[in-house]
Amino acid sequence: MNLPPLNAFRVFETVARLGHVGAAAAELHVTPGAVSQQIRSLQSSLGVELFTRQGRHLVLTQAGLTLHGAVARGMREIGEGVRQVVSELQQAAPPLLLTISTEPVFGASWLLPRLFAFRAEHPHIRLRVISAAKAAEVDWKKADIALLYDAPPWDGLWWRPLRSLHMFPVCCPQLLHGPNGLRQPADLVHHRLLHEDDGTLWRRWLVEARVPYPGDADVHIESFGIALQAARDGYGVALSDEFNSYRDLEEGRLVRPFALKVPAGLDYYCLSLEERRNVPEVAQLIDWLMDQAARDLFGA
C-alpha cells in the first residue's frame, strides 16, 4: 500500500502526545477542523481506528499505540538528522569576522575579557579589535561597530549610550598609608593630581568635595593610559571611571580613596553604520555588549 502523506503522521503524533485536537491545533498553528480532517484521512487510509474518546480527551487504541511508537521514533530520527546536517553546514562554513573599533585603555581593561566570553558562546563568529579614540577616526571600511568615549550626533551612524560614566579618584594602595595618607579629600594637597584633560574634571570633583584646587601640584599627561599607569606606580592620584579602572580596582592595583564621584560629562557609546547594525551577527554582538554593560554595576 502507498504510505499516507508525512504531514498526516506529524498531526497524528501531535494529537497522540497531547490527547486533544484543540491543543494539537494550537501547537501546529492550524485550525482544529484541519487536525480532525487529517486524523480522519489517516484512519481511512489505514482502515483502522487510531483513537477512542474518553470525555474530552482522545486515547490511543491498540493499533494507535503501535503506530505512535513507530511514528515518534521516526520523527525523532528526522529531527536528529536535520540537526546533524545543520551542524555540519555550520562547521563547514568559514567563521564570520566582526571588527570592533575602540580606545586602547577601554579595550584592554573592560572590552577584551568580555569578548573572550562572547567568542566562547559564539564560536562561529571571529572577532578583531582595532583602535580609534573618536568617531571621526574610525575606519568604517573595517569596523562593524565602535565603542567610544565621545559625544553625538554622528551623521550616517546609529548609536546608543553604552553606560553613563562617573569619575572618581584612584591611586595605588600605598598612598592610603603614611603621614600623608589619603584619608579625606583635603589630604590631596600632599599629592600630585594626574589628568589627561586641562584639569576641568579635577576642578569639578574638588568643588563637590569642597577642597581648593592645588594648581601647582597637578600634572598634565595627554594619554589617559599613561596617567593611569602613573597612578598604579604611585606617582599621584588620577581620575578614572567604572569602565577603564574596572580590572585595576577588582585586582587591587588601584583603590578608590573616596566614595565621591561626579558625572564625566561624556559617555561611552556603541556606534555602527546604519546599513550594518541590522546584520544578524552585528545586532547579536551589539545586544550582548549592551547587556554586559547593563550588568556591570561595579562602582555604581
TrEMBL record:
Into which family does the record put it?
A: Belongs to the LysR transcriptional regulatory family.
Q: Does the keyword Zinc-finger apply?
A: no
Identify the domain of life.
Answer: Bacteria
Q: Give GO terms: molecular function aspect only.
A: DNA-binding transcription factor activity; sequence-specific DNA binding
Q: What is this protein called?
A: LysR family transcriptional regulator, glycine cleavage system transcriptional activator
Keywords assigned by UniProt, alphabetized: DNA-binding, Transcription, Transcription regulation
Any keyword Transcription? yes
InterPro entries, alphabetized: LysR-type_TF_proteobact-type, LysR_HTH_N, LysR_subst-bd, WH-like_DNA-bd_sf, WH_DNA-bd_sf
Which organism does this sequence originate in?
Answer: Pseudomonas jinjuensis
Check the record and name the PANTHER family matching this protein: HTH-TYPE TRANSCRIPTIONAL REGULATOR (PTHR30537), TRANSCRIPTIONAL REGULATOR-RELATED (PTHR30537:SF79)
Please state every residue range assigned to the domain named HTH lysR-type.
4-61
Task: List GO BP terms, alphabetically.
Answer: DNA-templated transcription
